[in-house]
Structures are given as structure tokens and as C-alpha cells.
Here is the input.
Amino acid sequence: MKSIKHPKENRTTSLEIRFESIGGLGANLAGQLLAESLALRQGLNVSQFSSYGSEKKGTPVRSFIRVAPAEKPIRVTSPVTEPDVLAVFHEALLARRSTLAGLRADGVFILNAPHSSSVRLPKGRVVLVDAMAIAVQEKTRINTAILGAVAKACETIDAKTLAATLEEHFGRRSAKLAEANVKTFWRGYNEALERLITEGFSAPPADGATSAPFWGYLTAPIGGAIIQAGNSVINDLSASRQGFAPRFHKDLCNHCGVCDMVCPDYCLVWEVEDIFHRTPADTAGWERRAARLLGIDYRFCKGCLRCVETCPSGALTKELEGPWVGAEQVPLWKEETV
Ligand code: SF4
Ligand code: SF4
Here is the structure.
């Protein structure tokens, strides 16, 4: 695997890294640990910060790391818009144009995806690492596996030093956790596969990383009135799942509705049925409405598995994610009605 070449004389920093993720996958911690290792153990100048919204799982998270030689101060404090290394923590994030924005033509793109992934890839150096599978097997999180792939792709990062940093950090909680995370890191390092993509698309320009706010002081409604209520229908939470998803077994379901009461994202899909009853003795008959669970809209399922824990009849089970998720997807609405 080739490495990023340093230093770049015409740049204020010699290495710029951006992690693109979603709340719950550990990108912020990964950025902090990488920066700690580079600064405190390798003696480089490093700046790191993350941007994220609310703490709720599923919100976008970006972590920015700038690295420079010890004698070269880092004066830039803005987000990394033209990364040398861009690590994306979930394939679903590629649907956002801003995810790949600004990736340098000579940079490296690291994606958490199986080696056999058919996802469209940008031109240039691409590293695929199945961090989700590694994390599930090692009972850890994907962030340390991705750090392994990042360390392999970039010669500035000393992999052994970074592994020692992880060991110390996780060792403060337990030796077992430290061992599992160091193993995850080395698996990410060894199982990362680099490909040179020649037929891919070009990453969007850096100014695509952020979009101008829709409302500004010239365009906002008078008085700051909110004339269109917000909603979350476009907020795909697939990337929040950490390798597992609830699987629905229709034949075991008694449609009690307990799962719907605990699901924080209303992603269970129901149909309402009018049932008319009439017996020979009751000529008028009576009618009632019954709700039936049809399945799950996985776009909005963040994999918290509360529904699985509360289902009294075993109709929801915790399963490793796979192609079955797409096959068993039940949409909450018909696209043409939105
Ligand atoms: S809690 Fe279980 S049995 Fe009840 S509606 Fe949900 S899936 Fe069906
Ligand atoms: S795992 Fe279950 S409770 Fe959690 S978001 Fe998905 S469907 Fe809802």
C-alpha cells in the first residue's frame, strides 16, 4: 500500500484528515485518540476538533485533524475542507454530496465497506475495510478498526504508537476492553484493502462540503416565523446501526403494539383494518378497528433493539445485518404520496 507523501511545502499543514460519520459510531473519539497519539507520543503539532449536532444517535458527526511538523505551528482552526485522508464510517453517508467534498486528487479515501462492495467509488486511492464485521466479531466499535485502516494508508501515523495509545485509553476502563480494541485496530490495519480506481467519479469541490443556509437575513420570513414545520422524513438513520437490526417474524406477532410504544423513531409500519362482526343473534352486528404490524421501515431504524427486548412473543429478533434488510424493508409511505 502506498503512503501519503510529506511534507507538502505549499501547505500550512502537512496532513489533513477528515472523518465523516454519524452519532454513535465513535468518530469523535477516534479523532481524539489519533490526535493524542500524533501529538503526545510522536511529537508532532496537531489540532483536532469535531462538529456534531445533538447527542442523539443518527446526527451527522465530522472530526477534523491537522498535523504539522513540531517546528511548524498550526494557525488554521477551521474545518478541514480539502482532506488528504477522508474516512467515511458508513456507506449510507455517501448519499450526501458533502461527504466526499474536497477530497484531494492525490488523497486517499477510506470506506467502511466489505471488499466486495458494489458501491460507486471516487477516482484515485480507495481503501475498503469491513470495520462493521470486525467490530461485531470482536464485540467492539468500528472506530478502532477504521483507525487501523487510516494508519495503514498514511505513513505519518506510526501504527504501533497508535495501538499503544488505544491500549492505554481503553485500559483505564478494563484490560479486556483494551485487548479487544487493540485487536480490532490491528485487524482493521491488516484487513484494509487498497484499490486504485481509474473509472470512478471525481469528488465534488470543497465548496460542496457545506451548503449555504436556506434562510438568511435577506430571505427569512418577517419576524422569523417558521412557515414550514421541520420533519425527519429525509433523515436516514441506517448509518446509526452497529451491525445488528431487528428482524420481524410475522407468524409470531400478536399485534399487541408494545414494540411501537418503545420505538423512539416510529419506524414500525402498521395497517389499520376494519373488522365487521355479525352473529345470527345480533342482526345489527358491530365493527371494530384493528391495527396489524406489517414490518419495519429500516431507513429510520437506528438499531437500538428496544423493540426486540420488549416484544413478548419473540416476533422480533436481533440479527446480523445483511441483504435481508433490503428484502424485508416495508416503507412507511408510498413514495408518490410524499
Ligand atoms: S411487540 Fe412483538 S408481538 Fe407485539 S406487535 Fe410488536 S412484534 Fe408483534
Ligand atoms: S431497533 Fe426497534 S425500537 Fe430501535 S429504532 Fe429500530 S425498530 Fe425502533
